[in-house]
Design goal:
With 344 residues, the protein is mainly alpha-helical. The protein is built from 17 helices and no strands. It is globular, with a radius of gyration of 29 Å. About 7% of the residues have low confidence.
Length: 344
C-alpha cells in the first residue's frame, strides 16, 4: 500500500482527457464548390454557391462592389456606354445668367465624365477579380477540367465571370450533350417531378434544391408545353376576359411548379396543409399559391403536423420537439443556440 499514486487523474483515466478529444467531422456539411453533374457527394446547389459568391464579392471588393454583385445577380454585364453623362443646357432667358449656368453645367459634365470613366475602369477590374475568385475558391478541379476543354474557353470564357457562371451552370445542371436527346429530356422531367423533401431536410434546403430542378427543366424543354393543358381546364374555358385567359396561359408553368413544391414537401410535416388546400378547392375555394415564392411562404408559416405515433408518446428528442413548431420557429431557435454556443 502507498506504493502507487492515487491521483484522480491517473490510472484508468489515462489518455482520455478532454484536451485530446477531437470533435467528429460533419460529413453531411455542404461543400460550396461547383462540380459537374453527378460529382460531389455533399455539394451545395448552383444557386446557393452563386449566393455565396455574391456575398463574398460584396464583403471583400470594397468600393463599387455593388456593380459587380448586380451583374452576377442578373447574369448580365453592365453597359456603361448606354448611360453616359449628359451635358445640360441652361433655360435661363437672360444672357449673363444663361452663360454662367452653362459654364457650370460644362464643369459638372467634365467631372461626371471623369467619374464615369473611373467607375467603368473599376468595374472592369473588379469583374476580372470576380472571375479569379470564382475560379480559385468556388470551382472544383473536375469542373475546371471541363471548362478548360471548352472550344471557346480562351476566347469567350476566360476572365469573364458571367460567361464562366453560365458554362458552369450548364455543366452542373444539364445532362451531357452526348446522350440521346430524349434521354436527357426525360431525365430533366423526372428529376423535377421526383425532387422531394426528405425526412430530416430543412425547408430552405428543399426549396433551393427544388428551384434548381425547376430551372433545369425550364432550360431543357421550356415552359410553353403546359399551355395546351391550361386551355383544357374549366377555369380557362369559363373565363370570358381575353386578357385573363392570356395570363392563365402565360403563368401556367409558374402555377404548376408552385403546386409541385407543396405536393413534394414532407408529408409528416405538411400533410394537413395539403389536405386543407385540396378540401378547400373541392369546396370551390381555390387557395393554392400561384408562385413558387408564395408556396414557400405558405410552407414556412405552416405548423408542423403531429403524427399518430407522436400523439401517443411525449417527444423524446430534439427532432420530435421541433415537430410542434413551424419551420420559421425552428430556424429562430437554432440561431439563438448558435449565439449562446449551444449548437456546434
Amino acid at each position: 500500500m502507498g506504493r502507487f499514486p492515487t491521483s484522480r487523474n491517473s490510472g484508468r483515466g489515462r489518455g482520455r482527457s478532454n484536451t485530446s478529444r477531437k470533435k467528429p467531422s460533419d460529413k453531411s456539411s455542404k461543400e460550396y464548390r461547383f462540380y459537374p453533374s453527378g460529382m460531389g457527394k455533399y455539394k451545395a446547389t448552383f444557386n446557393d454557391i452563386k449566393d455565396k459568391v455574391e456575398m463574398d464579392v460584396q464583403q471583400t471588393f470594397g468600393k463599387r462592389s455593388g456593380d459587380v454583385v448586380q451583374s452576377l445577380r442578373d447574369m448580365k454585364k453592365m453597359d456603361y456606354d448606354k448611360l453616359p453623362p449628359k451635358l445640360k443646357v441652361s433655360t435661363k432667358t437672360k444672357d449673363d445668367e444663361k452663360e454662367r449656368e452653362n459654364r457650370q453645367f460644362e464643369l459638372d459634365y467634365t467631372e461626371d465624365r471623369r467619374e464615369h470613366e473611373k467607375r467603368k475602369e473599376l468595374y472592369d477590374s473588379n469583374m476580372a477579380k470576380a472571375y479569379a475568385r470564382i475560379w480559385e475558391k468556388y470551382t472544383s478541379e473536375p469542373m475546371k477540367n471541363r471548362i478548360r476543354n471548352l472550344s471557346d474557353y480562351e476566347t469567350k470564357v476566360r476572365d469573364d465571370p458571367i460567361e464562366l457562371l453560365t458554362r458552369v451552370r450548364e455543366i452542373m445542371l444539364m445532362p451531357k450533350k452526348s446522350r440521346y436527346h430524349y434521354d436527357s429530356m426525360t431525365e430533366a422531367i423526372l428529376s423535377f417531378l421526383l425532387c422531394k423533401q426528405t425526412k430530416h431536410e430543412s425547408l430552405r434546403d428543399y426549396y433551393s434544391k427544388f428551384k434548381q430542378a425547376r430551372d433545369n427543366l425550364k432550360e431543357d424543354i421550356g415552359d410553353d408545353f403546359i399551355r395546351h393543358f391550361v386551355k383544357q381546364t374549366k377555369e380557362y374555358k369559363d373565363e370570358t376576359d381575353k386578357r385573363v385567359k392570356s395570363d392563365l396561359e402565360k403563368n401556367g408553368f409558374k402555377h404548376w411548379t408552385a403546386y409541385i413544391l407543396i405536393r413534394n414537401a414532407d408529408d409528416s410535416k405538411y400533410g394537413s396543409l395539403k389536405q386543407e388546400l385540396k378540401g378547400r378547392y373541392g369546396g370551390k375555394f381555390d387557395e393554392y399559391p400561384r408562385s413558387v415564392e408564395a408556396a414557400y411562404d405558405r410552407l414556412l408559416q405552416h405548423k408542423w403536423d403531429a403524427t399518430f405515433e407522436q400523439k401517443k408518446k411525449k417527444p423524446t428528442d430534439k427532432h420530435d420537439k421541433d415537430k410542434s413548431m413551424t419551420e420559421e420557429q425552428v430556424n429562430m431557435n437554432q440561431k439563438k443556440k448558435k449565439k449562446h454556443g449551444d449548437l456546434f
